[in-house]
């Protein structure tokens, strides 16, 4: 049943209230190897280089970053970049990717909304821009059906989230508050025990019984189901139109200013990747899994891959209003000093590409750079 407007407001308050924690904790979707170099192109750089010889692209090794996985694996980015070489790094956590962007170790990255906001506000609006969307959905509450048969049964149980202050953690804390239960956000102790557990460890913890479930992203959610878990709640059901941003595309403002043609090429590759993913879901799923195997050394089994992929929507729209709503309600509740998010988005290059593709322009919710 869709959440009420007041429910969504309170959810957003808690979600953004935890943003200051993100400098020390992981972002929405940590899963995979930390900053692994995966710069072996599937399509070699051919032709005349654009204004930069190389563009360094970052992403996470999980399915909610499927655009980056597929675009890398199928060579969509490299094809648009022509003679400019695309190199890739895989990250575990939002803060480390933001640090890499600030240090110039990467130029463009796929990342969650919370670290995007945090990186932008901490730099006083100077470090990055959000230049496009990538994915919505792919987050679920999965529980042990022998211990938890209804949402009310979650009270008194041990539920994992990826890390203190990450996107799933604050979403679960908000859901707990909506139920009228009390939990200390820092310790995770209270009417529900919130157990911060790395996504790589969560399936084993669930199997051993040390946790009773998890509010986790894909493919971790489907891994828990494969271990006998049951999906009790899909976070998409808590949002209007069942859509919320889970992955954005960010770029260093310095790189955007110096190499707009390269940024446009990567965005064009992203748009074409998403179009191909949505037109060829089975092939896209296989390509994403192949890239996961290349990055981590291990592919996902079909009983995990299939349901996980199905729950994610790939979109060029950054769903800016969902990010804006979170920030506005956090300020209204007095849980966060009012952040100046004006300028966090620069969707002009993306909308130029969408127009050329005959697609509908996307909106920046009044937070555009121009």
Automatic annotation (TrEMBL):
**Signal peptide position in this chain?**
1-28
Task: Name the domain of life.
Answer: Bacteria
Chief location bin: membrane
Q: Note the CDD domains from the entry.
A: PBP2_NrtA_CpmA_like
> Where does it localize?
Cell inner membrane; Periplasm
User: What does the entry list under GO cellular component?
Assistant: periplasmic space; plasma membrane
Q: Which InterPro entries match?
A: ABC_SsuA_sub-bd, NrtA/CpmA_ABC-bd_dom
Instruction: Cite the GO molecular-function annotations of the record.
Output: ATPase-coupled transmembrane transporter activity
**Which key words are in the record?**
Cell inner membrane, Cell membrane, Membrane, Signal, Transport
Report the NCBIfam families cross-referenced here: SsuA_fam (TIGR01728)
Q: Give the record's family classification.
A: Belongs to the bacterial solute-binding protein SsuA/TauA family.
Write the protein's name: Aliphatic sulfonate ABC transporter substrate-binding protein
- Which species is listed as the source? Streptomyces tabacisoli
């Amino acid at each position: 049943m869709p959440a009420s407007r007041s429910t969504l407001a309170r959810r957003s308050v808690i979600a953004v209230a935890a943003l200051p924690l993100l400098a020390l904790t992981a972002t929405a979707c940590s899963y995979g190897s930390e900053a692994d170099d995966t710069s072996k192109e599937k399509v070699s750089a051919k032709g005349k280089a654009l204004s930069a010889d190389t563009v360094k692209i970052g992403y996470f090794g999980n399915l909610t970053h499927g655009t980056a996985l597929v675009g890398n694996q199928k060579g969509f980015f490299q094809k648009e970049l022509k003679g400019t070489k695309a190199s890739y790094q895989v990250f575990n956590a939002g803060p480390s990717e933001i640090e890499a962007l600030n240090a110039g170790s990467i130029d463009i990255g796929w990342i969650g909304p919370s670290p995007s906001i945090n990186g932008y506000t901490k730099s006083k609006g100077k470090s990055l821009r959000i230049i496009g969307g990538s994915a919505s959905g792919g987050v679920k509450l999965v529980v042990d059906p022998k211990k938890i048969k209804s949402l009310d049964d979650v009270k008194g149980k041990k539920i994992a989230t990826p890390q203190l202050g990450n996107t799933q953690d604050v979403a679960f804390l908000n859901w707990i508050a909506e139920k009228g239960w009390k939990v200390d956000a820092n310790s995770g102790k209270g009417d529900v025990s919130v157990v911060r557990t790395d996504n790589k460890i969560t399936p084993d913890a669930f199997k051993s019984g040390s946790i009773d479930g998890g509010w986790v992203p894909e493919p971790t959610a489907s891994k828990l189901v494969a271990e006998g878990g049951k999906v009790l709640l899909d976070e998409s059901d808590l949002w209007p139109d069942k859509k919320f941003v889970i992955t954005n595309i960010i770029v260093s403002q310095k790189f955007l200013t110096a190499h707009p043609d390269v940024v446009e090429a990567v965005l064009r590759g992203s748009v074409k990747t998403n179009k191909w993913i949505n037109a060829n879901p089975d092939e896209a799923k296989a390509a994403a899994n192949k890239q996961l195997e290349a990055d981590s050394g291990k592919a996902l089994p079909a009983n995990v891959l299939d349901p996980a992929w199905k729950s994610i929507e790939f979109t060029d729209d950054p769903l800016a209003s969902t990010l804006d709503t979170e920030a506005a309600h956090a300020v209204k509740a007095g849980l966060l000093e009012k952040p100046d998010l004006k300028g966090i988005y620069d969707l002009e290059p993306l909308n130029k590409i969408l127009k050329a593709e005959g697609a509908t322009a996307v909106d920046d919710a009044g937070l555009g750079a121009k």
